[in-house]
Write a structure and sequence with these properties.
The N and C termini lie far apart (about 45 Å). About 30% of the residues lie in helices and about 35% in strands. It is built from five helices and nine strands. The longest helix is centred in the C-terminal third of the chain and has 18 residues. It is of the alpha+beta class. It folds into two domains: about 70 residues, Roll (SH3 type barrels); about 80 residues, Alpha-Beta Plaits (2-Layer Sandwich). Strand 3 and strand 4 form a beta hairpin. This is WYL domain-containing protein. InterPro entries: CBASS_pafABC_assoc_protein (IPR051534), WCX_dom (IPR057727), WYL_dom (IPR026881). It comes from Amycolatopsis panacis. It holds the Pfam family WYL.
Length: about 190
């Protein structure tokens, strides 16, 4: 479909899914979001589809930590290797884990908000790649998100019809929000 996600080769999905099922290590060439290409050796746990992209949740043996890998960044077909004993997963809900990792990792400016909306309502407006939504109660949720440019955050928040409280913010964000709030208040008063 136009504007859709990158196409993933069925054979790639099959090889990765089989390695997850059979607990077989995978070796593959991977390109990061920064354009760095290198060999990775992982212990695959599960495939997760975000509605937009396929991700592999795997234990990266070289980095000794859990990682998420976009399948469209794997070059060629992974090579299965030795079997391994399964590790304890990094989270009970792998879809939420992937959502949190992909919504926060690419952004240098991180922000956490308490939003006056149900988690389901906000999650319907926020794609998993833009933020991780966590329910707090029936009418309140927490959003962890970020931006590449600090100036983009106020404009993003201004689009909502929800009240929110900033729980964690990068330096300079609160001052920027206060300046913009003052500008809008003056515009309303003088109009």
């Amino acid at each position: 479909m136009p504007g859709g996600a990158p196409a993933i080769d069925a054979e790639l999905l099959t090889v990765v899914a089989a390695a997850c099922r059979d607990h077989e290590r995978l070796r593959f060439t991977y390109g990061t979001r920064d354009g760095v290409v290198g060999e990775r050796e992982v212990e695959p746990l599960s495939l997760v589809h975000t509605g937009w992209r396929w991700y592999l949740v795997a234990y990266d043996r070289d980095r000794a930590d859990w990682r998420t890998f976009r399948l469209d960044r794997i070059d060629g077909l992974p090579v299965p290797g030795f079997r391994f004993p399964p590790r304890e997963p990094p989270a009970a809900d792998l879809a939420a884990y992937v959502s949190e990792r992909i919504s926060a990792a690419p952004y240098p400016h991180q922000v956490t908000l308490r939003v006056s909306a149900s988690a389901a309502e906000l999650a319907a407006r926020i794609p998993p790649s833009a933020g991780a939504v966590e329910p707090l109660d029936a009418g309140t949720c927490r959003l962890r998100t970020g931006a590449g440019d600090l100036a983009a955050i106020p404009g993003y928040l201004a689009q909502w019809d929800y009240d929110f409280v900033v729980e964690e913010a990068p330096p300079g964000l609160m001052e920027r929000l206060a300046r913009i709030a003052g500008r809008f208040t003056r515009a309303v008063a003088e109009s």
